[in-house]
Amino acid sequence: MLRILAAAILLGLAGLATAGIALGAGTDFPNELKTIQSLKFEGGTHVPRKEVLAALKTREPGIWPWSRKPLLRLDFVRADTAAIEQTYRQHGFLDAKATARGTPGKTDDRVVVTFVIQEGVRCKIANVTLEGLGPVPEGPVRRHLYARTGRAFNPLYLIADTTHIAYDCREHGFLPDVGALATRRADSVDVRYVVQIGRSYAFGPANLSSPGDLHVKPRLILRELVFRTGDPYKGSLVQESIEQIYRTGLFSQVQMTPLPDSSNGVIEFDLRVRERRPRWLDAGIGSGTSERLNFTAEWGHRNINARGLQAVLGSKAAFDAKAKFILGHVEGTLYDPWVLGARRRGSTTVYYEHRNDRAVPSYVIHQQSRGINFQVRREYRGLTRLTVTQDNTYVDQQIEFIAHVDSTTLDSLNRYVPPSYTTHRLGMEIDRDGRDDPIQPFHGSNNTFAADLAGGPLSGTSSFTRVQAGTAWYFTLRRLSVLGLHGRAGVIDPFGRPQNLNPALDAKVAQVPLEDRFRIGGVNTLRGYNENALPASGGLALLQMNVELRVPLIGPFGTEWFVDAGNVWERPSYIHAKDFAIRFTSEPYERGSVRWIAGAGLRLNLPIGPLRFDVSWATQPDPIGGRGRGPRTQFAIGPSF
């Protein structure tokens, strides 16, 4: 129906303007093959040139000497005059006409193509009328319309607005027929939308009719529907139901065909699904600032015992820049998409990890961790997700000396590094992701808030609370450049009986296990630093800020210009206003000073994420983080935030 409506609208608009594609007088295009030297435009000052160029098939030659010169094609030129006229009509110039001519270039085999544009008068929308909405509120419908009084008239508004009106009516239980009419009066246009609302509908049953044998029980599919039979019909709930079925991970294709029954006022559905293979095996290799080489492997089953349960076995091994082993991790997870009979995704994970902590050059702490993790996640409408986690970790550790250590440090190590400790925690995280793309966003925001309680009533070696929040915002600028803003803050408050878990540290800091303290540094926090190098022993207070401008170049290539700032303090009370001062000096940063980093980099945008090569400079040298003021290069995979 929409295709027929679009065709009718375009035919109706033929009376609003007369198209002219004829070549202008004096056009002299040669018959032999020629290349295009340049494109020029005469007239037409009210539409941005880049928008006109985007509509053309004829291309300008590249700026590089080795760029291939585009050939002159007369069929492209004729099509481009029509495209220019259509572009100007979308800005209200309904009488726009375009012609083209060719003139000799600098050499005999080159041609300069000139498009001559006659804009005419710009028509604006004088009135917008809505008829036949019936019980559907008119105010919300008008807010969704593109056609508004005072705007330049765009014929495509009619197609888009009829779609919006039909959507709003479907949200109130109707299946309408929507028509549009534009009437021109000199330099203005009256727009009229006529709605045949019809009767209201309710949801009927959904019938599963997938071809072939299904290994998933039908009830596991039908329970994902977010509507019930008899509820008032609402179009958005149909799409949400399809998305819920996809989220199970069991199906590669889902189709819901509505079957309206006007006599009974219900809409039934023919539901068809295509199953994915139940088992999968993945393997990967990667690199980072601390984990210079890491290997991952994963095996999984999507539908255990035909009950919709999912099992995953995963492993990871990582090595540093000297090919020394730093991490080995193995885990097994069982997922249940419906916990306690409701749409809550639950998981139980059992894991084992061996880590070599090389933060201090003179010794290595070998840690062996075993644990079990319980998690329940609930997704709400509006892109919001709530996650509750209960984690139990049992750690054994041993010290290996690789350099001479003075007697004081040795006594402290032997006294305060316990051979084992346990951490029991309960955490909650709220995440709202409004980005248009999670890998390469152009606009939107992502906001998180997390709070943890360890020890206390949960018992364990150490007791503390941890609160952290983060926000990231993205704004599209000219030429599809993206401005990204990111901020993160956190605080940890130890309580209860002191348990010193590391030597030579602030008493409060030492009560918290190293893996739970705040540390920053690396390609995604403070560029130019090694991963988690600031400080290596961690702290209880964190502030971080990132500003990044991502500018596209040619094809998938782009650049990024950034400023990173942040620090970790041993205690929140140690943060002072003077710490945020920016100083360009050869004197080293003080322990509490905010580190300021600026730099630029190249990006290669791939479907898996951008490949980045960054160069960064610091305002002062930093002996604590192990870097100077001068340039430092880093390579990374994925966005910085």
Overview of the molecule:
By secondary structure, this protein is mainly beta. Helices cover 13% and strands 44% of the residues. Among the domains are: 2-118, membrane protein fhac (Ubiquitin-like (UB roll)), CATH 3.10.20; 124-196, membrane protein fhac (Ubiquitin-like (UB roll), Roll); 202-275, Ubiquitin-like (UB roll) (Roll). The strands form 5 sheets. It has a 16-stranded antiparallel sheet with strand order 10-11-12-13-14-15-16-17-18-19-20-23-24-25-26-27, with no helix packed on it. The protein has a 3-stranded mixed sheet with strand order 1-3-2, covered by helices on one side. The chain has a 3-stranded mixed sheet with strand order 4-6-5. Strand 14 and strand 15 (363-380) form a beta hairpin. The longest helix has 16 residues, at 74-89. It is globular, with a radius of gyration of 32 Å. The two termini are 43 Å apart. 27% of the residues are buried.
At the fourth level of CATH, the homologous superfamily of the domain at 2-118 is membrane protein fhac
CATH level 1 class label of the domain at 2-118: Alpha Beta
CATH fold label of the domain at 2-118: Ubiquitin-like (UB roll)
Which radius of gyration do the C-alpha atoms yield? 32 Å
The second-level CATH architecture of the domain at 2-118 is Roll
Shape: globular
Mean pLDDT comes to 86
- Poorly predicted segments: 1-27
* Overall strand count: 27
Beta-strand percent range: 35-45%
Record the strand order, biggest sheet.
10-11-12-13-14-15-16-17-18-19-20-23-24-25-26-27
The description of the largest β-sheet is: 16 strands, antiparallel
Give the proportion of residues in helices.
10-25%
What class would the helix/strand composition place it in?
Answer: mainly beta
Distance between the termini: 43 Å
Count of alpha and pi helical runs: 8
